[in-house]
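This section describes the prediction task in plain terms. A model, or a person checking by hand, is given the sequence of a single protein chain and must write out its three-dimensional structure as a string of tokens. No templates, partner chains or ligands are provided. The sample shown here is typical of the held-out split.
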Amino acid sequence: MIDDRQPFDVVFLDFAKAFDKVPRERLLEKLRAHGVRGKALNWIRNWLSGRKQRVVLNGKFSSWAEVLSGVPQGSVLGPILFLIFINDLDNAALLVDILRKFADDTKLGHTVNSPEGRLHLQQALDSLCEWAVTWGMEFNVKKCKVMHLGFNNPAQAYTMNNQQLSATEEERDIGVCMSKTLKPSTQCAQAAKTAQTVLSQITRAFHYRDRHIFKRLYIQYVRPHLEFASVAWSPWFEADKAVLEKIQQRAVAMISGLKGNSYEERLRELGLTTLEERRHQADMVQTFKILRGFDKVKSDTWFQRVETTGRVTRSAADPLNLRQQAARLEIRRNFFSNRVIEAWNEVPSEIKNARTVQSFKRAYRAHRMETVGIA
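The expected answer:
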């Protein structure tokens, strides 16, 4: 929509005490409607029942109180049960373009280039509030935010439960900072800040920085902050790339006993690669997983294969090659489904046809070692 210069509004929803407010008996009814019956349903009922809690403050304990609602947080089953409970939210938002649910992180969006579009989004919000009342849930309206995207967006005011939603220019969505500009600069800055904080804590705790120990600490505790969900926000501005790469440069410079003088030499000595190279390989792995069905998503949602266009070209010789999509905006050109096309089409066919994700990773890394000389 944005690439077509259409204004688009996204509403980020927030459930009040999401996991704690789920009505237990109504949840069990929904489980039964989804085909969960017999011993499995009884096991879940017993797992949810008989739970108690108390408050501890300054060594003083309150009396135990029975927990009458909710699903346990921090458990494997808790988020799944919550998703089953809110699964029919879609029926309350049939008029809008998107509704996405991930545990208690839910958002909906719609094209708002006409009064009808804005009305449909408001009607969906009203329906969601009615759903919440019906099923014993509640939205924390003060934390629900609307983000106005695209050209000539009228910045419509929306309400939930007769309260106006606050507009936002940045919002954290499933651990990634989403900006109104849709550019990854804010996410890069925040990821680098968090990683630098962790790196500083490690350097204060370990004065002798043995290469093996410090490398493992960096890989386990620092680098994940720089790479979390990078396929969704991989930067294309050199300044943003540098913000992330500087953290790894600092970490490498702290390791004792390295003989290399340059950053690249030290990386090779440690058996590491640049973060930009790792993001590139992550893109290729994700493309492989989508095309080969390892991720349970429809590949044609993301890509169009060259063979389906009917044109006879050199790239059509490989059935796994992809067609580059037209894009007006820089944001669209650098979005995952577009930026990977050229690199993916250059991957040798035998690597694309790997049987497992791990075998693809190994083969593609070896290919990169031969072609660009990475460690």
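For orientation: Residues 185-205 form the longest helix (21 residues).
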